[in-house]
Amino acid sequence: MAPVRTKTPLLPALLSLVIPGAGQMYLGARMVAASIFGTAVVLAFLIWFTLENFRVGLVEWGTLKTSWLWLLFAVFWLWNVWDAYRRAHGRTTPRLVSFGIPILLIYIIAWQVTDVNLLRLVTRFSDVQIIFDALIHPDLLTRDTVVHQGMTTIWIPCSNPPQTVGPGGGSGLPVGIDKPCGTVGDTLVMAGQGFEPNTTGNLYWQEYGGTNEVQVRSGGAPVLVTTDAEGKFVVPFAIPAFAGRDGLDPNSPIVNGIEARFIREVGPLKPSENFGTLIGKIEIKPAPDWMTAFGIMPVGATLPAFEPGGIFVTIALGLMATLISIVVAAPLSFFGAHNIMARVRGGTVIYYIARAIFNVTRSIDTLIWAIILVTWTGLGAFTGLMALSIHSIAAVAKLYSEEVEHIDPGPVEATTAAGGNLLQNIRFAVIPQIVPSFLAYSLLRWDINMRSATVVGLVSAAGVGFYIFEAIRKGGYREYAAALWCIAVVVLIVDFLSAYWREQIFKNEAQASSAPPKAFYQTPRGIFYTVLFVAVFILSWNLAQIDLGKLFEPAPTFGKVLLDFVSVDTSPGVLDSVMRNLLVTIFQALLATTLGGVIALPFAFLAARNITGRTRAALPVYYAARFVLSFLRSIEAVLYVAIFVFWVGVGAFAGMLALSITTFGLIGKLFSEAVENIEEGPVEALTATGANRLQSIAFAIVPQIVPPFISYAIYQWDINIRLATIIGLAGGGGIGQLFQNYVGQLQYHKAGTVILAIVIVVTLMDFASAKIRERLV
Amino acid sequence: MLRVEHLTKVFPNGTVALKDVTFEVADGEFLAVIGLSGSGKSTLLRCINRLIEPTSGKIIWDGTDLTALSPSEMRRVRRKIGFVFQQFNLVRRSNVITNVLTGRLGYVNTAQSLLNAFSKEDNDRALNNLERLGLREKAYVRADSLSGGQQQRVGIARALMQEPKIILADEPVASLDPVLSHSILKYLEQLNREDGLTVLCSLHFLDLVHRYATSAIALKEGQLVFQGLPQEIDDAQFKAIYGQEAQRVSII
Ligand SMILES: Nc1ncnc2c1ncn2[C@@H]1O[C@H](COP(=O)(O)OP(=O)(O)O)[C@@H](O)[C@H]1O
Ligand SMILES: [Mg+2]
After folding, report:
1. What is the Cα–Cα distance from A205 to A240, expressed in whole angstroms?
2. Which of A335, A582, A676, A712 is found 20 to 30 A from A93 (Cα to Cα)?
3. In terms of domains, do A410 and A478 share one?
4. Who surrounds ion ligand 2 at CB < 5 A?
């Protein structure tokens, strides 16, 4: 850096003092200068905006209100001056400062904007145990129960003078208490006999003749009633506060009931009522028309039939959306392929339009599409299907297009040289090349659509999503838990099948044959698959009760609603709200990525075959870690929101936590694959020098995985921004919540602004993340 | 007769691949096109059937200026011009006969061909051409299960489906080993001698040129630097075409 030394260091330092980065610019470090200036602008905006809107870092001195974060900003500014000074001498400054301060600032702001409150996680932990308990006991199977109870009565409180006999009455087996009257906190002793020997039951305090009751507790735990070998019990307990609910007036004592209740489960496990709604049940139904028509069954006969539950509607939606998107996206994808469109006059314009439509359409989440479409086709499975299909068509078409662009151009050249026209070239030189990857993408999409189908019902009132929505609304956490388990099982099966079939596509191919092969639709395999697909489609169509007619009878206001959506509201008030909520969403995604990523770090090693999969002792750890990751990942973040809303309350914090659970599952898998892909050479070399396992991880593995980990984390942040846009639909705060509010208030033009903002942010993020990852590799 | 007049090709990025190239090929010739890699051989051959659009100049074939034809007229003319590629350009996942049948695309009805419904006649023609190239029994295996030499023979069979009058071969043996090179060039020689097809073939090795070609042209940096009989390429010519440091190497 000899020529630099000729410049005086004071001038660049001064320049940087006036404008951040100016000194660096003067010294010819243009990229550095641009980064410093850009960072300064962004940080200043964030500090100012979040102070105004979220009171982040607010300090007040008399009438002066400002943010203490400006202090950190000043440190950054001074660093920039120092850097310019040192740079003039050809030296550098520690990265810890240059990167550390902006990152610190951003996390502080993110923390406040997303309303993080760790204390709430702790203080409300006992509440959330109900949910954990429900997760372990989902409402799927039950047993018949036999109840033995005995109830007696008491006066509350004692009159003056105290009653000498109790109120009388009671029911069930003989029980009694030692006092005729009492007040809250008095100790009573209950005794009973004739019960089943050696069993344990509970005590309940009841409103006499009414339906209200509470379980009698002592120090938080329920009072247990245990019978001896002869079926007798004696149990002391204190009168609960519930007894005083109507006041304690000695002039008008009230009768209360005390019941000892023993519940015993008998008989085999059987599907619960909820199992029927969720998964399905066998019902006796009139035989179907075609059976009676063909004389297989007499008219009026009945048959046991399977009545599918919500999860099957969801499966049907996922399947149909996938089939529809394959059929529609395959031809569309050629319009988005540059190498094809370059051969058509005006094709390049079509290409850009097609790609733009694909990108905009897929940057709007399925759930948001569903909300938009509800205004057209109303609530129901059909709307869900359309939302899934639209998003899926765009996503699949984009991938297909890229695949068409990556074909070997040689065969196209050959068919062109033989005099083939465009259609013929596509048919003979392009399509044969893309079939396997199209199939693979379609299977992958099936997996994704299955997941999306589980949530689309949250807004379109169909399938398991709707079921969950209802369960949460009623506070039925065991039903909610049952649905989560059910979804996890279905998604894991689909995940497995999709991966297995994708593997098969590229395997069994080149078979030699001496006879002309039959066309696909003439082979038994072909006929089987064709019939299967048609059958599955028709079955799904019926199951989800799709009514195409709805397309043509939109609500009378639909035209106006559509106009409203398109006529984006850009008034400052709306833009301000959108901006605020977008910031929340972006920071939620950032924190969720960080949190999920940090927890996933150790898990990545536990779930890596080359770390824990090697010894028999560690193998269970490997499988357990894999299972935890797969399970958590199989459930969409929106479905977790309910847990955290219950735990820490509605808002951005709950949404961020829900998002971090899914992140943990997703990124844990990516990380563990990165660990599995490391080269063994360095590990071997270190082991040879006598290093132990931990040392070889630290020195041979960690350096290899840092770049992919960072790359995956950025990728995940990109994904999380998309996911965060819908977290709010379930009460998780951010832009989704704003969208739902606007739609709820029928302010569609404002909702249109939100959609536009989402499209812009998602697209920018997509672009930025791809660029950054490119540079990292 | 094929006449190339003042042919120039400038690629959009500014590369001048052909500069005012003029030459003539009589019917029934086996013309070798030689030159260093990057000298414009591929560009020249592709300009002749307009796989690459020439920037200026004329290509006159049997009295028609090919550069003046509309795209659909050009497609009709292409049927009579077979093309054999260095990288074979087969659809690897399709079977051999399907690849061969694509040579027929210029003749068949579009709608029918899209349904893969080739006539019995075309099918027989494909099998016959494969027979001729010694690949009859490979008709129904996937193209990528064949060896390189076999794939190039499929490429020739595909070109023959066009019932061409002329064959353009762009370094047809550059991806093959010497023994296979001879076997492929012998097929081209056979087509040239027995069927009377004109062959324009770019080649890398001079002794292959001597062995098979009836005349030769040489390109250097897009310009025609030699035209004459293969035997006329003496050491001085050779150095002019390939540069001072080049050594004559021989291939079996
Ligand atoms: N599509 C293209 N765009 C730009 N330049 C090209 C293109 N194709 C070939 N060229 C250039 O044109 C020149 C001639 O190339 P080519 O005809 O392939 O030579 P050869 O076949 O003799 O090796 C080379 O400099 C090559 O880099
Ligand atoms: Mg070439």
Report:
1. 8
2. A712
3. yes
4. B 42
